[in-house]
## 1
Amino acid sequence: MKTESRLVQWICWLIVITSFFLTGFIIGWFARPTSTETSHDAGSRRHLREFLDEMRPENIRDHLRKFTRLPHLAGTEQNLQLAEQIKGEWLAYGLDSVEMVPYDVLLSYPNISQPNYISIVDDLGNEMFNTSLSEPVPEGYENVSDIVPPYSAFSAQGQPGDLVYVNYGRTEDFFQLERQMGINVTGKIVIVRYGNIFRGNKVKNAMLHGASGIIMFSDPADYCAPGVQPYPDGWNLPGGGAQRGNVLNLNGAGDPLTPGYPAKEYTYRYNLEEGVGLPKIPVHPIGYHDAIQLLKNMGGDVPPNNWKGALNVSYRIGPGFTDGFSTQKVRMNIHTNNQVTRIYNVIGRLRGAVEPDRYVILGGHRDAWVFGGIDPVTGAAVVHESVRSAGKLLRKGWRPRRSIVFASWDAEEFGLLGSTEWAEENAKVLQERAVAYINADSAIEGMYTLRIDCTPSLHTLVYDITKQVSSPEEGEEGLSLYESWHKRDNWTDDRDAPRISKLGSGSDFEAYFIRLGIAAGRARYTKNRKTERYSSYPVYHSVYETFELVERFYDPSFRKLRAVAQVRGGLIFLLADSQLLPLDASQYAGSLTKYAHTIAQLGQKHPDALVKYGVSFDSLFSAVENFTVAARDFHERLTTLDRTDPIQIRMVNDQLMYLERAFVDPLGLPGRPFYRHVIFAPSSHNKYAGESFPGIYDALFDIERTANPKQAWDEVRRQISIAAFTVQAAAMTLTPPSETKSQISDVL
Amino acid sequence: MKTESRLVQWICWLIVITSFFLTGFIIGWFARPTSTETSHDAGSRRHLREFLDEMRPENIRDHLRKFTRLPHLAGTEQNLQLAEQIKGEWLAYGLDSVEMVPYDVLLSYPNISQPNYISIVDDLGNEMFNTSLSEPVPEGYENVSDIVPPYSAFSAQGQPGDLVYVNYGRTEDFFQLERQMGINVTGKIVIVRYGNIFRGNKVKNAMLHGASGIIMFSDPADYCAPGVQPYPDGWNLPGGGAQRGNVLNLNGAGDPLTPGYPAKEYTYRYNLEEGVGLPKIPVHPIGYHDAIQLLKNMGGDVPPNNWKGALNVSYRIGPGFTDGFSTQKVRMNIHTNNQVTRIYNVIGRLRGAVEPDRYVILGGHRDAWVFGGIDPVTGAAVVHESVRSAGKLLRKGWRPRRSIVFASWDAEEFGLLGSTEWAEENAKVLQERAVAYINADSAIEGMYTLRIDCTPSLHTLVYDITKQVSSPEEGEEGLSLYESWHKRDNWTDDRDAPRISKLGSGSDFEAYFIRLGIAAGRARYTKNRKTERYSSYPVYHSVYETFELVERFYDPSFRKLRAVAQVRGGLIFLLADSQLLPLDASQYAGSLTKYAHTIAQLGQKHPDALVKYGVSFDSLFSAVENFTVAARDFHERLTTLDRTDPIQIRMVNDQLMYLERAFVDPLGLPGRPFYRHVIFAPSSHNKYAGESFPGIYDALFDIERTANPKQAWDEVRRQISIAAFTVQAAAMTLTPPSETKSQISDVL
């Protein structure tokens, strides 16, 4: 009995122990997360706050001061030294790696022993007047050597001729000159105002119309703000200042001699005659003091008022000089040389913890025409501060989900060469793995408010991040940057939110966005677009872009630059660290709808022709409608996604990442094989202006000037068809990959 | 004391119980797999066995019988009905979905009321001889209507002229004719033998040399095997049979009127004059009975022996007829019409269980010139049996890891139109998600052994699967297909393994492989390439391609077709169901090394020119070496991969999937924008022949015929540079994405 009861007792205990063991086992089994994918977004937000708060105005000031002491033109020893310095500091800040990546690209420099100038010569060939050989150097920089004088990079070499004034040198200006004023510029030297469109387009137009040379001047109407003093007493362009700049028509080709491929040592190079976009005529920039001398004695008719600038001359059209001076000619003495030269990008990397094969890129250029006080060092200083702040977080053990790439590009000023060559070399890897590209050129061009140009899928993220950044404006303590911006630039006609613009070109995002289809955006502080009508900022690309220009006038507290740093950095941070990519397909749908209406309205200016040539925008509207439905359904499905399933997360993130890629057509836009984005590209008539549906836009632009309307309207029809197809194909990428039937309708 | 000891006892028990609980908890915690990614490859292999064993010769026989009773030319009612039937049966077999996908493409049909023929006319215009209007119909098919007579699809309409015989009509034949024999074909009708190169290339060559028409005949030397009777007593081509076929030069464009975009209703169509690849001269095919009549009285010189076929004529070159017949002319009466016509692909889908956004495609065409006894129905029957077998497994609860797409393409015979239009419509989704494409055209063209053409990364998988399939040969019971194949076609000069060939073109894999860069392969039973020298199989594209041809001669047991079905199906199965993609980058490295040596040797035929024009293959060898190292390291890393981490697995699988994509250049090969694969494409001189480094190959091909050697060698240099860059870029995709520095050297 006793042993029996003992046995029973033992059995009981065994049962109890076993059941506790089992309970423990079961709890243990279920307590363990089945995946490393836990929602880490709350932690990520805390790190974001730290990352933003770590950025300091005084640091940005110091970076700017440090990087603007000497000129650092692309291809020079100074710019290589600056690259080495940046590499060293990025490594010290804590990036996982920093590399120098060289390319050998075509650059263009004035000939030191034969300076460039323009002269007025009499009939014996005596020089009556010469334009200045350089700009007066600003105070404090008198001992600096290697300041490159104003020139037009890649200009051909020069010859004499008569002047013809063609306003801004736009397509419509030349059309007006030839058709309405009856003046042919063949063999003449064209003189045009800077501004309104990219200077390379002016040069292309001059060549197309047969001009033998082109002079570009900065008119005070376009380069002086009213009531502002010339530098150094204010931020206006002095009369002796002039705008440097390249005059290529690359259309995204990068190095003119190696289009489509990276300019490495082994790469095949075209001859100079075959190079992409090189002008065949001499080109030279002058300031307004020199321009007066060339313009004042011009003959011919007085032009319409909208051709007149603010100089005290009558802006006569020519050709040539007026009576009494009519035997005088203008001679362009241009000795600029093209030269294959080594450049260096600096590429820093920060490895992602979970998805190291996904890249978020923050890139901006380092090369400057002279000191780069605004362009590009306000941008480079901001990148520098972002790297420093990220390094600080890294030391605390943080690491983003995805990899981040920081880039300091070279030779942007010579045609976006460094960034484009790197994009060419890494095209395959970028197409497969790049999540987004944020550009970091000049961070300020005015003192009024924020300016954002970005792809529509980034709109929501831009609003999100600007709500987490403080207004840099005095008297707006407690206001967010979003509120400050909203107050100053409301998107009234569309929606009650701060205005966001389309991306054009003219900076290093071009190859990433327009060629490769990587979601892209840029942020900077800007002027008031309603009241301040001058082009760019007045001293743009002159020797007067100094540290002092920024410190005295543009951002004495450096808080505006800090705000821009926080926006650029914050975008990168959230793109790299959010579990679900913060890209919004529905915003893209909204934008496409708006663009479709805009382009259809442009077509509807010719109602009779639309009927006659059977042109309809219906297929485009139908495709946009399908895209809208697909985007809405996509985001609805996201709300019920299993956030613990890593493959599910990766699948939808892949759809978001590849959305922008879907808008790229490998065949390119007509005649522009490297501009492949069907929704956004510059118009053929102005590289700076981002147009939506650029293929249709350009086809319609030609309608008014064509000699063959049937052919021109056929091209419009063809472009509408390509746009409709592209939008539909993009919609298809948003339908569930797990579905086995088409989720969206056919295009009607 | 008692209460105290009770307390101690309780505490002891509590400790014991707690420790058991904790032990349970800990064991439970660690016992639970942290991921759903368990190695399921063993289970997958068991399912593979079931999948292969389920395929039966008698079923393949039945499918073939059923699908070859009536003609099913693309664009006809019969072919639509066949599509509906296939759709119904695939759904019944158990696919998740089956869709009909229509396109409106340019097809070409003879005019029923004005039949095509060629005549010899006397000087009064009387027809002295006319070629036959149709082939004698084989027994059993006398009551079948809608048999399209032999014609050259897309031929222009015709005119009279003198004949010139130009052998096979190859680039080198025309070169020999003009340079060595001194005969100009301008305005003449060219007559050439079928065979050796794609017929469209013959037509292009004739046009390039100014011919006014071209006649193609099947010579017994090329279309009759020695000792074999003509059909129906054997499988040789009867004298009244002729080869249909399209004569386009599309170079991968798909529908000639909508190059680059799917031929949907809304799509912009070019005019016929602007269409891609349409011949401007009349073209017509004839059999050898008719050919004798045209050839026998020809005048001019007797050609070299390698221009002579097996007919009892002297193969004189012309131009025109010999004395006594010299006033006679040849007239081509061609009334074939181009016509935009609706075609239908059938697309069946099977959803993947783990990665539904990864697609493995098995596609082959359904349209036939007449009955399609071999081409394509031996292929379509094999696909049908694969679908049936997969459906059977599905019913048992199996589902592959990735999605499988089965495709029945339309209008392959008119220029790969159905498959290309679908590739165009789905290009974005396919570029992002397609793992591999296996082609399923004719499954048999001879009775000797297996033939595989595929991308190098599939070599290892092909060997693997053929070891799991039994030899279909009598007397080889117990031998694997691999052993049987190895015995018959050893790759002796390279390695001791069965020979695998490069992909050329001429079937539906083209757009997937050469345009989109999706890993691709094809499998069929073939003749003995060493002893059987005739082109294709003798009755190719004639009315004699019947069910009986296969049942009586090619594969009476249907075991050869079953073996091909098991190879094609097995490839699809393992690509869709293996946890790690069975793609082998090292095999690609080995092939690239071989190709680099081959192309360099071709260049070294001109040692003086290489020196004179500075041509070097070093950069290519350097890039191939880098690729080899990257591939080796990649596969080494796979051996230590954490197989339980889904993101790790996905990352390396993405690298494997995108490897083939890395060889695609969006700029295309020179003059061929839709042939984008830098490693594999047909030569410009023969669509059927797959060349490695086709850009370099074509540039070298031109060397011997060029008038400007400097320019020609510059093009060779340019192509070497592009090839080196592309191989290097592909190597970069194989380096660890988690590494932050370049893992491979620069190209030297």
Note: The mean pLDDT of chain B is 94.
## 2
Amino acid sequence: MKKLGVGVLGVGEMGKRHAENLRRLVPQARLVAIADVAGERARQVAAELEIEHWDNSLGALLEHKDINSVLIATPDKFHAGAIIQAAEAGKNILCEKPLATNMADAEAALKAVEKAGVRLQIGFMRRYDPAYAAAMQRVEAGEIGEPVLFKSVGRDKDAPPMSAYQANVNGMVFYNNTIHDFDLARWLMKDEVREVQSYGTVAIRPEVAKYGDVVASVVNLSFSRGAIGNIESYVQAVYAYDVRTEVVGSKGSIFIGSVNQAPATFLTAHGATRTLADHFLTRFEDAYLAEVRDVVDNMLHDRPPRVTGEDGLRSLAIAVAAEKSLHQRSACPVEIQAAATSGKS
Amino acid sequence: MKKLGVGVLGVGEMGKRHAENLRRLVPQARLVAIADVAGERARQVAAELEIEHWDNSLGALLEHKDINSVLIATPDKFHAGAIIQAAEAGKNILCEKPLATNMADAEAALKAVEKAGVRLQIGFMRRYDPAYAAAMQRVEAGEIGEPVLFKSVGRDKDAPPMSAYQANVNGMVFYNNTIHDFDLARWLMKDEVREVQSYGTVAIRPEVAKYGDVVASVVNLSFSRGAIGNIESYVQAVYAYDVRTEVVGSKGSIFIGSVNQAPATFLTAHGATRTLADHFLTRFEDAYLAEVRDVVDNMLHDRPPRVTGEDGLRSLAIAVAAEKSLHQRSACPVEIQAAATSGKS
Amino acid sequence: MKKLGVGVLGVGEMGKRHAENLRRLVPQARLVAIADVAGERARQVAAELEIEHWDNSLGALLEHKDINSVLIATPDKFHAGAIIQAAEAGKNILCEKPLATNMADAEAALKAVEKAGVRLQIGFMRRYDPAYAAAMQRVEAGEIGEPVLFKSVGRDKDAPPMSAYQANVNGMVFYNNTIHDFDLARWLMKDEVREVQSYGTVAIRPEVAKYGDVVASVVNLSFSRGAIGNIESYVQAVYAYDVRTEVVGSKGSIFIGSVNQAPATFLTAHGATRTLADHFLTRFEDAYLAEVRDVVDNMLHDRPPRVTGEDGLRSLAIAVAAEKSLHQRSACPVEIQAAATSGKS
Amino acid sequence: MKKLGVGVLGVGEMGKRHAENLRRLVPQARLVAIADVAGERARQVAAELEIEHWDNSLGALLEHKDINSVLIATPDKFHAGAIIQAAEAGKNILCEKPLATNMADAEAALKAVEKAGVRLQIGFMRRYDPAYAAAMQRVEAGEIGEPVLFKSVGRDKDAPPMSAYQANVNGMVFYNNTIHDFDLARWLMKDEVREVQSYGTVAIRPEVAKYGDVVASVVNLSFSRGAIGNIESYVQAVYAYDVRTEVVGSKGSIFIGSVNQAPATFLTAHGATRTLADHFLTRFEDAYLAEVRDVVDNMLHDRPPRVTGEDGLRSLAIAVAAEKSLHQRSACPVEIQAAATSGKS
């Protein structure tokens, strides 16, 4: 069997999962090496997964001749730079979301990809989740008629440690969390968001304000063809990892997700209690695997990526507008330079 | 047993239900007469409920000496005028929501109530629903900590007939539907909404636009103490009467409502099917009865109303701001004249 | 409007609800009088419901000339005797389940009804519950194909006080609780139960044994046309009043009921909690009203009852067989004397 | 890392899943070889999983010197023989349920295991499912008080092809399906089943009768310490793979499973539709993996198995009694020869 040689950059929680999937569950891939600026972490993961090579830089990783493709799972702010470096080395790329943490970096990354003529897919893995995929099939089959409303809720269980805010490795909530919903909005509604209105709050954790972030946000969406929507994000919901999406149409509605996410109910005189899901790696376990399998298969057979660099750019542009609206207290248009999307990867 | 003499004005779907409850299920009340400008309808309902008197005007209804209190269930735009007339006749009043369809009328109505020294309650019956009432108890007991987000969805099942838009008897969606959620927002969050941002759409029914209305809307809320929120309304959801509310706090969350509203599930090779609730009179049957019982009891014992004229005014002010935001594409403050709330009923 | 004159015998919890429904919510009925051997209770209920007459015996109740029909809601063991007395007085009858607590009494009651030529309906009100009624419609429409399995669970929330066992006013669990499921089994499966196998336990409340009762039971059913089933009853489930029924067929299945019976969910770091239903008068509120309305309407128009004396007899025969199986540790046939069903009311 | 050398016998649907898990997801194991009497199937699976060796007999498999443990996933009727052969070769064993299809074979197998001094675990993987494991923890913590009732439902989605009945590779429904529930009954109730009563039906597929099997069954259970229970099995439920278990106690109840097994709901004017789970390999994916990981870890560290040969024997004895009761129409005791359990593996 011909196999795709892959290298993984960044083996924190997310990158390690990708590496495990590639190593164990994707027969078409050969995980050649992993790299992490924390070299010791790279060494440990390599040992655990029984991978021959590990490196402490992307430069070193790119030296391996049998690596054809690179999976980027660094902190958000290093995504664009890593894409540029990998593209210049002629590698195909699967990069975690977001494409970048600002529009200039995003456009530079896409330009590099175009110039190098390599493939780039952005890691919006929810598109691969069985429930989301089934929803999309029904939308495309016209079963809910014309979409009228897009609604989404994304709540993480535990508050991020303050050190995460201090290190500023990821963008604020719009760039790191809500970006998933921005992508779903475009994908499920088969339309573009043209304008947004947003509010955010730090009320229960005021110290977050000095890092330019919020603990909760609501973003109203206005779509190009007339539909509207709202996305809520909350990073410390305490009770569960709770992700729900609705597409409401003229003939029916689709509701994805559940507040009852585990199959055991405990009934006492105090009521019924259920244990809930607590982590995205649990909820989207299947999606992450399906994603990396699809990417490997497409790259092996030189087929275009399912989630493009332009998808990454457009969702980022919504996040930028949402952040702007937070400060301006007015609706903000979603803006993309014409040039930026001319070269679709 | 001493009984409260009550007259009901307006016996359409809503008023008839109130009349039935008063006639049959509220022993403390005596339903003396009903009135409706459609005299024949008044006559028929009186016959069906075995009530002695019926009239075709509020003036005639107010003539009955043993009527102490009036329940107003006319079309929205007549609420304020009816309140003024009933107040001037010295009657206590339970008026369906909204208090009025514009701020000037609302303020005039409250002034008349204050001057006459009568009681006025506004018909926000959801506060009496067992699930909402239980939620409020938990909020007040501090069980979810500090409220961070208020979320609400209100979807009617069937599209209103175009004749309803033409007759313009009720206000647009914000005044007739969303007003319930505006009241819940203030009540459950124990806070005031200071600013809103809204989008609306007529995409799937463009002819609604000429009546100044929308078929769906999303309203972002900013509360005085820092919390935020969003309310969605949709008047033609097709699949069910679907009302859901969440209060999300620092220690937990409360979710009221369900998309699975009926207790029978039909399982076939095509999946699981449930029959859903289809009407507010079904979903809130208990609430309407509890409301009218509470009002009658309070009036008999000269206790202040649970939902005041000021509550009516403040929810209306949010609707006004939401409508303004729809046109201005910017956040709009919720404004109330200082004088308007000085005389709380 | 012509009205049916009704008298109610027994105004404990159940009889009082019937009286309230008849007095307030059934315009076609006139509740002439109520009777209870506890005369003071009869007097109080009459005052509360504003009914003119009250009596302390069935004999006195039957004296009222404008009473055409009698609703019997006494303790179980008095049902048969009251039916005989009312029938001999020429009254139509709605009698709470069970028809009687032994076969001899049941047969005597049916004979008296037949001889007097009056109508008799047995109070299996679940047939009137919207969810059960919808299920039956689907069964009759053939939507689940041929029925294969009948499953039912009936759990009361709070343990009966020991005084209830001592007074022995009702039959054991099979006669007072499971009898509902025996009736549902026959009705929904459109078939007769020919044999049963049962186990019971008193493990957590051994003192119940001396009254010949159990706290929980499981009864396997064998139907005449080949289907099978099981019914579980538990009288002290602690957590909720939990009633669930399934009809499983060759093309699909119907599931009635839910462990999530209330529409508010409370979410904390400890999981999701729901408040559950706690009483049959809450769960089956609509069914009791629909039942009495149907009975009154049928009696006014001289139409046959929907649930017949034979239905009462056949469900009782299953209970008798289930009790016998408990002691014999073998399958017991369901036996009815041919004569007993010859005169169907 | 020291690794456990494993061979897999039988690579049909179930055995192939075990092989995949061992090959890819259990770093502590080395899958040395697979064997199947259908040699071509063994060859294909070996190629797909990139395993060096494949064989077409257990004898050949046992020749591999670096195989320390054998996983048996043959048709049921070959389990006991394979256990004996593997035990005599000195291998530790994980054998799929049931231990055997009759008591004599089961006892012979346990005797061989005891004589050889090897480890044997039976594949009751539900004990490893997160929901069942969480339930057991609560039972053991005393949270539901004293267990009163055990209820379980096991329904397969699609009818087995008639060829499966003809080939008679597996035992009837009690031995192949209900055996899971028999094991759960013993495990979750921490008690032994002493007697059973059962009914079965072939009504909708009469041709199954000639193979001595049924399409649906209900089994009443009587436990040694007084609790009771019921298990239903149905092999062609059409709508879903539907597994549910309840343990009902004196202080509360635990409900495992759900009829709403997938997280997407489709809402239209015809009601709410959900897509349901359809296969045991999906529902119990996590359990199968956790099971094989635990077995490998225990064998590597020479710790006793979590599910013993005696567990296999005792669940089989319940199946035997249930089958007997089907024919005798009476309660049948669960019988085990004293000698059979003297040597616990």
Note: Chain C has a mean pLDDT of 90.
